[in-house]
Every structure is written in structure tokens, then in C-alpha cells.
Amino acid sequence: MAVTIRDVAKASGVHISTVSRTFSAPHLVNPETRTRVLATAEELGYRPNRAARALITGRTHNIGLIVADIANPFFPPMIKAAETHARRRDYHVFVADTDEDPVVETDLVRALAKQVDGILLCSPRMSDDQIEQLRREVPLVVVNRLIDGLPAVVMDVGTGARSAVRHLVDLGHRHLVYLSGPRGSWTNREIRKAAGAAARAGGAEFTVLGPHVPVSSTGADATEAVLATGATAVLAYNDLMAIGLLQALQDRGIAVPEQISVIGFDDIAAGALVRPTLTTVANPTAAAGRAAVDMLLQQGDDGATGQVTLRTDLVIRNSTGPGPYAPAGATTKQVAAYAKE
Amino acid sequence: MAVTIRDVAKASGVHISTVSRTFSAPHLVNPETRTRVLATAEELGYRPNRAARALITGRTHNIGLIVADIANPFFPPMIKAAETHARRRDYHVFVADTDEDPVVETDLVRALAKQVDGILLCSPRMSDDQIEQLRREVPLVVVNRLIDGLPAVVMDVGTGARSAVRHLVDLGHRHLVYLSGPRGSWTNREIRKAAGAAARAGGAEFTVLGPHVPVSSTGADATEAVLATGATAVLAYNDLMAIGLLQALQDRGIAVPEQISVIGFDDIAAGALVRPTLTTVANPTAAAGRAAVDMLLQQGDDGATGQVTLRTDLVIRNSTGPGPYAPAGATTKQVAAYAKE
DNA sequence: TAATCTGTTGCAAACGTTTGCCGAATGGAG
DNA sequence: CTCCATTCGGCAAACGTTTGCAACAGATTA
Predict the structure, then answer these.
(1) Residues B187-221: pLDDT tens digits?
(2) At what angle do helices A5-12 and A31-44 cross, to 10 degrees?
(3) Mean pLDDT along residues B64-72
(4) Which strands make up the sheet holding B140-143, listed edge to edge?
(5) How is B91-112 classified by DSSP, letter by letter?
(6) Beta-carbon contacts of residue A258 (< 8 Å; ≥ 6 apart)
(7) Contact B95/A83, CB-based, under 8 Å?
(8) pLDDT at residue A125, rounded to an integer
(9) Does A54 contact B51 at a Cβ distance shorter than 8 Å?
(10) What is the set of domains in chain A, with CATH numbers?
(11) Between A and B, how many CB-CB pairs are < 8 A?
(12) E strand map for chain A
């Protein structure tokens, strides 16, 4: 049915090895022969069978991309960037969703292992040990998690958290709440640590609530608890939670940012669509996707295992405003957003 | 390096064919032998090489999923559902993004063809002819497009549009605007036709604006034009545009739904997060993803090429309210939302 | 002129499976 | 005790490529 290398060989009167070389090592074949082969291949509609090629070369030219939840708006831009970037390098991408389940995560890596040259593990939920274990079975690059000796791409959320806290302190807030994210999250831990330190440094009280499943409903559900603390500013693990909180506050007649300021993380598209628009720490997810792909493909070459840290940027919008200790004339100011490719 | 069928055979003292059968035709091997083989396989960490298997069986157990834009919030729930559903049937999914480019679309199908058992083409931008052509090279299921003789899954947006218009007419609106979507879209055409007919049937004026790129900014940009028509209700091609319009209206002090009612399409998550919450026509994207996968996998078996139409449902929230011709006491009423799996 | 090199091609083994065919062993029926 | 059916497992070919090796021709060098 399908046209193979053999058909092309027969049709152009050469041996199959010549056809093979025409595609995989063109410099080894006479230019004249080459064009002839190429012509008949084109004519017959020949396309190399990657599975067969993979079988003998050991390289599939596929990569796996595993995320916790495709529908979480944090991931699609990353998936998109990674896929496009990979394809430009002639790699195809398997995308899989673990539904936040560490067990599925492990199984998935193993199931994909034989079919890919490497796997991108985005925001993994499993333990460091498990990841180290899997690493011995298939090349891995981890996104949003730092493990010694493992190639990784992380967002510098610590710096982002510090900027966010400083912004709030500058606005005159002296009591901050952090709405914590999921328990296993490296990002969550980093934010909490950095924000807490920055708050103390700024002479502000710092209260942590959580952990929470990182969706908008948990943000809304936390409203009571937030109000009970008496804090005037809230930092949320992600935009989804921040938006949930934002709307819940409004629904009970509490003005944002007049009475409470809110900051999220990620800068998902919806943040600019809600009112007030959401101040947030932008994560370069697309850049992370590209960097991770590059890292994975290089890994094959030299085995170098770098760790890349990507810059995050505070994007000031309208959900943050002067607090009770505001210096005279303090006001939110627009800040140039982060760069895109 | 990797452990193969041969290693397992040697370790358990049987021929490789027995090992093979243990996995692909268990009933042909003695239960005793089987457990022994299974045990050593487990011990050695053996995983069948799918590429090799594909080479001989001709079935890769992979499928391709091609969408116009992964980052468009309409798609991720569909991708997620399709992937999960496929995996449950032991299929892995290549996801690719065409960036709305019909040429990329064609190339992608061809590039993936040899590596998959079939391809899901979601909201394709290429011509019917091109699709028919590709169909001869690889099994295809098209989502959101109806082509004679081609297996397809479509959302019944026509009925959704009619419900939406009827809802508006019942509320006392007599002049409706439709914010048109992208030119090549089958869905857009269906909505326009059905909404127009329903409006006429209800004795309402119907104005079409567009086409538009289906993103929030074009919705906002259309504000002037919408106001100029004097209409009191707007139907938008999708939620993104509806939300953009919603916010632009609010920004210029026009109350929604008091002065203008707005309805979107898709029911993306953000619709419930904006204020007022968005009345919209919910598309069962997840169900569509699952149905498309089922269809593709069945296609292999019997070659039947059905066309499935999925129900859409009007979800009434707070962006629609009584119009100038409202009967006394008319008010929006909550409606039970659509079913999920 | 002989020896060596270079460029081009063919040959055949290999990659890790599946599967049709055949033979061996077992057990029941006659 | 023979025959036949059934169950099980081995053998080897096949899937579509890549690639080391060898062969050959023509060109270059000594």
C-alpha cells in the first residue's frame, strides 16, 4: 500500500541503499543520481517511515511533553511554544496530561519512554526520588522544579515574589496574606519563602493560608479566611486563585484595590480581561517551553545538564493600590511589561 | 542497553516468540509459562518497543491531533479529553499547532501520516478539497466542519444560536447584532444563518458585523460599530470576543445587561470569571474530543464514516437582561447547565 | 606503469517485534 | 494400543530502514 524505499529504488533503477543515502546522507551520492531519485520519490509520494528509521538508529525524533493539566491556562502557551520549537527542529511532540496524579505521571513516562528521545516533565507532582529513578530510563528535562544534577528550566518566581511584596510594601501595606498553592509544588515553596522574607524585610506581617488546589474556586473559598486575618493585601499562588478571590471580594461589596489589593502569578490571558485588571507576576512560559526543548535536544549530543533560570516580571495593573500606611501621593504606576519573542 | 524481548526470552528459558505471545496473544501460551515470563519481564523492566511492533503490524497505536491554536481557550479542554480518552484505549497522541495556517496544516498531516493510525483535524482552515485529498493518505476525522462522506464531529451551533436569539427576543429585544468570526469558519456560517433566521422569525432586526479574528481585542474594537447600530443585544462568535466587548462597554460606562445584553459562544472558563458573568452557548468540547477519538478508532475496524452532531446548550448568566420591549416582569432565569462526563 | 586514492554504488546484516507454519507432547476416545 | 485432536512452543520470514564493508571505476601520484 504505502510507497517504500524499495519502490523508489526500483523506479529509479538504483539500490535501496542509494535511496536511503539520498535522504539521510546526501553528500555520499552523486548529484545526478540524487536529483533523479528525489524526482521519482516526489513523483511516487514517498515519505520515509520514521518508525523503521527509529528502529535502527535508535532516535525517534519524537519528544514527550507531560503536564499536570492541559486545561490549566498556565500550560497551553508553554505547550504551544514547545511544540512549534520542536517541530522547527523536525521533532514531533506527544502531549499527555496526568490530571495532577503522580502515579499517572510515572506510568506515562515509562509508556512513552520507548517512543521518544526524551521527555519534558512540566511541574511534576512526583517526588524527587521518583524523578531521579525515571531519569535513568529516559532523558528528562524538568520544568518548574530544581533537582541536583538534573537538567531543568525554572522560572525565577523568588525574584517575582520579592518584587510583588516590595510593590505592596511601597504602596503602604503592612499585613500580607499568601494564598498557598498545592502541597507538592516547588514553585509554591519558592514563592512562600521569598515573599515571607521580603515581607519581614519590609517590616510587614506575613500570613500563609493553605495549601489550596490552584483553581479559581479555592481562591473564592478563601475569602472569609483572608478577611479574618485583617490583611490589606493578598498574594496568590496563581492568577486563577487571585481572580476567584477578586470576584468573591467584589461580590460581597469589598472594593479592590481600595480596601484590599490582590496580586497573582502567571499572567494568564484572563487576568487582563477581568475588572479590575489583575496585577500579577508574569512567567515566561513560552520561553520556558523553548528552552526546555533546546536543553533536551542538546542533552543527546553532549550529556551536559544545565539548569536555566528564566526571569519573571511584575506586571502592575489595577488590582493593587495604596494601603493604610501609604506615603502621600502613592499610586500604582504602570510598568513596561516583559519581552516576548 | 534497553531490555528487549530477547533478554526476557533468554532469562526465562523460552523462545522469543513465546515472550511475544505472552504480551500480544496471552491465550496462546500456557498460564504457567505466561506467569513466569511476565515475572522475568517485570523483573528486567521490559517494555515492548512500539516502533518495532508498528513496523510489522502496521498499527502504531498513535494518533495525531491538529488544532489551529493550542493557546485558544476553546481547544485545551478538547485536547485534554481526547488525550485522556485515547490513552485509556492505549493510544498516544501527537499534538500539533498550525498557527491558523492552512499550509502548515497540510504539511503537518503528511508529516504525521506515517507515524499515526489516524488524525483528528480540529477546526481546519484548509479547503474541503485539500481535506478530501489528504483523506486518501491517512484516516481522518474532522471536528467542526461538515464535508460529504467524511467522518466528522460537529457541535450543533445552529440550535444553540436559535436558543440564544429566542432568549433575547423573549426578553424583549428587537434589534440584534451578530459579531462575526473568521471568514473560513464553518461554525461561523452556521451561527450566522441560524441566528438570522431565528431573529426574523421573532420579528427582530438582525445586523451582522465582521468578519473578525476571534480574539478579545476585536470584540472590544467593535464597540463603536455595535453602538452605532442602535441594537440592544449582541451575539458574538465566541466568548473571547464577547468578553472583550463586555469590558469595553463597561469601560465607557454602558451597563450590561441593563443597556445592552451580550451572549457569547463556547463557554470557556473565563466566562464565569468576568463580571457580569457571561451568558453563552456551551459547546461540549470535551465530548467532541472523545467522540472524535472513538470515531477514528472505529474507522479502522469497519470503515464506517458517521457524522456526529453534539448538542449545545444555552447557559444563562448575568450578561443578558430585559430589553426595551420586555413583557412585564421579564427577567433572566437560571437554566440548568449542560451535562459533563 | 604500478600504486594509491577518491567518489559512488551495491550487498547484506541489523534493529525488535509479530505471526504463519510445523512439530512435540499430552490426553481422550475408540 | 492406536489414532486423532488439542495445546503449546519453536523456527524463520517479514516489516522499512540504516550503515559498515567491499567493489569498482577513474583520477592522481610516485
Answers:
(1) 999 999 999 999 999 999 999 998 999 999 999 99
(2) 120
(3) 95
(4) A307-310, A152-155, A140-143, A119-122, A62-67, A92-97, B92-97, B62-67, B119-122, B140-143, B152-155, B307-310
(5) -EEEEEE-TT-HHHHHHHHHHH
(6) A321
(7) yes
(8) 86
(9) yes
(10) 5-48 (1.10.260.40), 62-154+286-312 (3.40.50.2300), 157-283 (3.40.50.2300)
(11) 131
(12) 62-67, 92-97, 119-122, 140-143, 152-155, 175-179, 205-209, 233-236, 261-266, 279-282, 307-310, 313-315
Please state, in angstroms and rounded to a whole number, the distance separating the CA atoms of residues A208 and A169: 17
B95-101 average pLDDT score: 92
Minimal Cβ distance to B270: which of A69, A113, A270: A270
SS3 assignment, position B72: coil
Query: What is the CB neighbour count within 10 angstroms for residue B49?
Result: 18
Torsion of CA B316, B317, B322, B326, to 10 degrees: 20
Residues 242-301 of B with CB under 8 A from A: 243-244, 247, 250, 269-270, 273-275
Local structure of B10: helix, strand or coil: helix
Among A304-318, B115-129, B288-302, whose mean pLDDT is lowest?
B288-302
CA distances from B253 to B121, B173, B177, B250, B257 (A): 42, 21, 20, 5, 12
The closest of B22, B64, B71 to B296, measured between CA atoms, is B64
